[in-house]
């Protein structure tokens, strides 16, 4: 795993989405254990994306450059649209709608469902991973699965940090809306920068 892959994956994991919101919400209203349980569920929700994306990418890596660039353009458009939406969506980091009193199984299942239907993950495995696998790689599928596993581990670490932060800084997140605005806009800028970077990426 290269530093470039690590930084790219880190930005993707940090970007606000339903999994982040759910983990923050559970950490705020259910405490540390609930936040960590939500983080674990979100990590498990990546598995279907990794399986489908890696199998498809193994064929894509051997296909024409035209197909690769078509997927690349889709990724750029998606990132720029998400940057705009995140900048303007005032509810992107809302923590007022979490359910309380949930058992660990229900928390995990809900978190899996959130990531299972998260298009950000599909785009990651379909548009971003090809940049980190050499076209001459002898075993591209294995390489993709290893990168996917690393992405899952990074997801759990970051989401666990979100849950821990939310559980220990409730007053900061619920009584200072200016902080949430700053955080949301920082993520929006990261989306835009990732889109620009992907636009100039080569196969």
From TrEMBL:
Keywords: Cell membrane, Membrane, Transmembrane, Transmembrane helix. It comes from the Bacteria. Pfam families: LysE. PANTHER family: ARGININE EXPORTER PROTEIN ARGO (PTHR30086), HOMOSERINE_HOMOSERINE LACTONE EFFLUX PROTEIN (PTHR30086:SF14). The chain crosses the membrane at residues 33-52, 59-87, 107-129, 141-162, 182-200. The lineage of its organism: Bacteria, Pseudomonadati, Pseudomonadota, Alphaproteobacteria, Hyphomicrobiales. GO terms for molecular function: homoserine transmembrane transporter activity. It is found in: Cell membrane. GO terms for cellular component: plasma membrane. Belongs to the Rht family. Its main location: membrane. This is Lysine transporter LysE. The keyword Thylakoid does not apply. It is a multi-pass membrane protein.
């Amino acid at each position: 795993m290269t530093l470039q892959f690590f930084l790219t994956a880190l930005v993707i994991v940090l970007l606000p989405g339903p999994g982040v919101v759910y983990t923050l919400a559970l950490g705020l209203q259910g405490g540390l254990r609930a936040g960590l349980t939500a983080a674990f569920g979100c990590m498990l929700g990546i598995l279907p994306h990794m399986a489908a994306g890696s199998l498809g990418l193994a064929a894509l890596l051997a296909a024409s450059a035209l197909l690769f660039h078509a997927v690349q353009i889709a990724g750029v458009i998606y990132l720029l649209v998400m940057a705009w939406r995140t900048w303007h969506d005032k509810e992107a980091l809302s923590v007022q709608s979490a359910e309380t009193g949930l058992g660990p199984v229900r928390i995990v299942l809900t978190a899996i469902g959130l990531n299972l239907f998260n298009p950000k993950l599909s785009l990651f495995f379909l548009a971003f991973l090809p940049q980190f696998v050499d076209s001459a790689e002898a075993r591209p599928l294995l390489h993709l699965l290893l990168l996917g596993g690393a992405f899952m581990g990074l997801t759990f670490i970051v989401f666990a940090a979100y849950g821990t932060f939310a559980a220990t800084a409730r007053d900061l997140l619920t009584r200072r809306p200016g902080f949430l605005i700053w955080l949301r806009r920082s993520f929006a800028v990261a989306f835009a920068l990732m889109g620009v970077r992907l636009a100039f990426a080569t196969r």
